[in-house]
Amino acid sequence: MEEQEKKPREFWFTLFRKGEERPLWHPELEIVFLMKGTGKIYFMDTKRMYTVREEDIFVINSFEISNFELEEDAIALSLFVSLRFAADVDPEFLQYPVNCRSYFHSDGKQERFDRLRRELADTFQEQYKSRNVSLYSKSKVIAVLEELSRYFSKKDQILDRRSRFESIRAVVNYVQMHYKENITLENLAQHTYLSKTYISRSFTKYFGVCFTEYVTLLRLTAAGKMICGEKTLAETAYESGFPNANAMIHAFKYHYGITPGEYRKQKLQGAEPEAVQQIVGQEESRDLFVSLLKYADRAVESEQTPEKIRNIIVDTHSRKQRNIPHWHRILNAGYARCVIDGTIQRELRYLQDHVGFEYIRVKGILGDDMCFMRRDMNGEIVTNYTYIDEVLDFILSVNAKPMLEFSEMPEVLAEEPVFRSMRPGCFSAPLSIERWRSVIQNLMKHLADRYGIQKLRTWLFAPWFAPDFIKIGLCTPEEYEEIYATSYQEIRAINENLLIVGPGTIDYQKYLKKFLSMCRRRQCMPDIITFRSFASGNEQDDELKLIGNNESFSTAVSADENLIKHAVKSIRKILKEEGIEQYPLVLEEWSNNVWQRDLCNDTCYKSAYLFKNILENNQSLNAMGYFAVNDRLDEVPPSASTFHGGFGLFTKNDIPKSACRALELLGQMGDKLLAKGDGYFITTRENEIQIFLYNYCHYDLLYRYRHLVNMSKTERYGVFVEKRRQAFFIRLEHMESGRYEVRRYGITKEGGSSFDAWVKMGAPDPMDEEEKELLRHASYPRYERQQVEVNPEEGLLNVKENLEPLDVWMVKIKKI
């Protein structure tokens, strides 16, 4: 079941697929829209199953007994409305049943159903575009209820199923748990201390059926789920609670109008081959909601939201806090082999010249693509440090220090190559831990001989990969502990002052305490605690199952816009509990998600994401390492398109993206902090003031779960929650009198985004060299310069900036 996160009490949306549990009844009013495929619906008042098809809409009343089954790849969207909310809107609404079933009517008689579809689509659109339940979203649900009341309410029939229902809830719960047994009214009376007469009358009153028929319907639903298996009719009847096969056959005929055999045949005829069922691709995600959202009122979507005004007063003579740019201590180059690539070397040089990172981090230093350990023609294992030396020499040549993760496992050492990515990487425990010890020992000796102990003491070493790999079966916890401890010992054997980091976990809540416990037991505590963040949401908490692109990891993005900040707070709490709160904390890898085909990665979204998370978390961390430099990581099949949504600061063909330009602007941050707040960060250095502004927007609900209904190759800004334009009025007080130069640099759709420049160019793909060069130049931020005078009597300088959603700006002010 896919439920919208943080389910409101009054109403919520849910996605249903084949095989997912549905209760025989529920107290809420349910409006069902079939978005894809076909299904079968059974109501007690019709005593037969009806076929429902794509775009059919129908209502299941509160406490109404029904059986709704979806076939194969069918998906239905339901809006549930609580009785409390409906009663608050119109107390009389609940007195009458709603008779809304579009499948009974021909295409020419769908006008009133289309009105309901439109209201439902508008309600859903408002829900997934909003961060919170608003009065406006409630008004949309009310509009749905008004349509039901006006066109589908049966005013000639009064319901009395809701009052005093709580009095038999225990009875209903007991029946739900024991319907497969030989349950009777006598059993119920003994267990619930209610009379048989009261129980019998209550079932008829609340559900419209007698007790015996209610139990039969529960058993019938269970049998329907087992009917296509390998069990015989007798076995199916027994396991679903029927006394014998004849009783089950009679129930099928009475309620569904067909025998169990005919029911099974109909279900199997609609089945697709298993291979077809397993293909869940990008086009399905893109088209899934189209059948509903085509009814939405587009005029509502295009309404201009009011501007948010921000008034900020800054005393430039106040005591200034030190501002250390921790965020550009680490740059992730990707896998070690990438650093040998000429294009990536050129990009690393550029970033070192324009930003300047202290460490360049690489992983996969022992991977087979590094030709580290191979078998020769005679089958003997040979070790070669050439590529490792080339990587390290280059990092040192650009005035950076290496941060090395001792992964992956050379295949000649692997116990079992249990996992391979698309790139030639082997993840496994070693066949012999002593052979592994010898490998790390020899590697460290080679590094010490070539670079010297003093230089190695400034590097950072990760003994092994993150413990998260345990849960996907790449090694056991015992193997992980032995490998990590062995690597740690051999690194420290060269020099006890070498700096070791770990564990680099994403799931810190699961692994951090276990890791620290292991380190204490094995005496292998790292000097720096590291973790990673790719903004993953907890799908179990959200009760959602992702429909994802089968080229990337199927992981949803968290609804928490401040996920890194909250993660840091939680980890700091754990470190304090463990008595090591003084340890440095480093975010060694981070990005907005794990998708390497997120088309938003190419847009202004990424620059806004970087501004927000760097400016809001820089002071609480000792280092942040954005991942990664270039789109070419080779973890998924390469894309022929330039703007295909990779992680990189640069496209695969060396065009800077908005993310790259954002880091260049942030690299001009001052060393003293004047003021900070939601959407702004103001620093100073010597006689210059730097103002950083951003208007971040988070992914909407649909896109966080990879539904691409509002996404295309060139239209990529329709997948965010609604956010207002922001007007910043910044008043700088106690400025020295005189003339000042004000320089403005913006990353917006009009400048600073190579993707948007490419769209304006006509979205050529593939591009020739002239077009690539033009885009490199077009990727520079928007730029404006002016001079202003500060009056000696006032000492004020005012700055005003209007930011559209996802805009970022840097304003530099310097006295002439």
Key words describing this protein structure:
Jelly Rolls; single chain; globular; eight-stranded parallel beta barrel; disordered N terminus; alpha/beta
What would your notes on this structure say?
By secondary structure, the chain is an alpha/beta fold. Among the domains are: 2-151, Sandwich (Jelly Rolls), CATH 2.60.120; 165-271, Homeodomain-like (Arc Repressor Mutant, subunit A). It is built from 27 helices and 30 strands. An eight-stranded parallel barrel has the order 11-12-15-18-19-20-21-22. Strands 10-23-24-25-30-27-28 form a seven-stranded antiparallel beta sheet. A five-stranded antiparallel beta sheet has the order 1-2-8-3-6. Helix 15 (342-354) links the parallel strand 11 and strand 12. Helix 2 (111-129) packs antiparallel against helix 3, helix 7 packs across helix 9 and helix 20 (508-522) runs parallel beside helix 22 (563-577). It is globular, with a radius of gyration of 32 Å.
| Widest beta sheet: strand line-up | 11-12-15-18-19-20-21-22
Shape descriptor reads globular
**Overall strand count:** 30
pLDDT averaged over residues:
89
Outline of the structure:
With 816 residues, this protein is of the alpha/beta class.
What is the strand and helix layout of this fold?
Elements: E1 2-3, E2 11-17, E3 29-36, E4 39-43, E5 48-52, E6 57-60, E7 66-70, E8 75-81, H1 83-89, H2 111-129, H3 135-151, H4 169-178, H5 185-192, H6 196-207, H7 211-226, H8 233-239, H9 245-256, H10 260-269, H11 274-278, H12 282-287, H13 290-293, H14 298-301, E9 308-315, E10 321-322, E11 330-335, H15 342-354, E12 359-363, E13 373-375, E14 381-383, H16 386-397, E15 401-405, E16 419-420, E17 426-427, H17 433-451, H18 453-456, E18 460-462, H19 477-494, E19 499-505, H20 508-522, E20 528-533, H21 539-542, H22 563-577, E21 585-590, H23 604-617, E22 623-627, H24 658-666, E23 672-677, E24 680-685, E25 688-694, H25 701-704, E26 726-733, E27 738-747, H26 754-760, H27 769-778, E28 782-790, E29 797-803, E30 808-815
Parallel strand pairs: 9-26, 11-12, 11-22, 12-15, 15-18, 18-19, 19-20, 20-21, 21-22
Antiparallel strand pairs: 1-2, 2-8, 3-6, 3-8, 4-5, 4-7, 10-23, 13-14, 16-17, 23-24, 24-25, 25-30, 26-29, 27-28, 27-30
